[in-house]
Amino acid sequence: MSQFSFVSLFDKYLVSSLCKIVLFLDLFLHLASIFLFKDPNCSSPYELLESSNTINPPISSNPTNLSHLLFGLLGSQKAWHYRKNYIESWWRPNVTKGYLFLDVAPNATLLPWPKNSPPYKVSKNVTKLVQETQHVAPIQARMVHGIMEVLEQEHEGVRWVVMGDDDSMFFVENIVDVLAKYDHNKYYYFGAQSEYILSNFWFSFDQGFGGARFIMSFPLTKALAQDIESCLRRYPFLNSADLITMVCILDLGVGFTPLKDYGGAGFIMSFPLAKALAKDIESC
Fold this sequence. Notes:
- InterPro entries: DUF604.
- This protein is an alpha/beta fold.
- Helix content is about 45%, strand content about 15%.
- The chain has ten helices and nine strands.
- The chain has helices at about 1-35, 45-50, 75-90, 125-135, 140-150, 170-180, 195-200, 220-235, 240-250, 265-270; strands at about 70-75, 95-100, 120, 160-165, 170, 190, 215, 255-260, 280.
- The strands form two sheets. Strands 3-2-1-4-7-6-8 form a seven-stranded mixed sheet. The protein has a two-stranded antiparallel sheet with strand order 5-9.
- Helix 5 runs antiparallel to helix 8 (about 220-235), helix 5 crosses helix 9 and helix 8 crosses helix 9.
């Protein structure tokens, strides 16, 4: 009986030792395959995890400044008289780049066009596209189409495209400081989640909300502009400009990167010690 117990214990010890050796060899071979036989064009999972938590500095030795930002503002002719002061509070004539895209040409009460306002353009007529697709939200389709129209203007030296509404207020110096930390040659889609939790739930937690809209790196904006009309045809059933934009960007394989303090006033006020980037007046 004691001999049987001794053999049984020896067998258990042998099996346990063999299991430990197999596990050690498996771990060794796994690590060797990662570090010794790695394809130089591929990243290991550990590198991907590390890079996702870090900010890559810009490749260019020339730091990002205000001249590298292009603003695309979308508004209506009827509302501009009441909202222009919001834009003029941060717009710097002959310094900031960009345009205000109105739904129709300004009437006589808005002319002559003030120098303190952004130069205006009349949005392209997307009626034919809306009718072809039977889009459920023509106004939102026009707003999304505006991304393409922004790039049709002069954009030499632009690194970042900032989209907003006619009541958006941007803290341009703070935006420049934040964007300078990122590589503008890569695809980036920045914005803020809604301060209203149900809006995030109904639409998505992965999109830029509200009048502060969103920021895109120039390469992403260019790729998106080339696909805008096709995307509007793919999703005629979406009724939110922010949601349509997010889906179109996702189709390019780019996810959303939230920026703290980029959004509604309530969201900004919850971070009094942090730099404010933008806010939507309607959320006040």
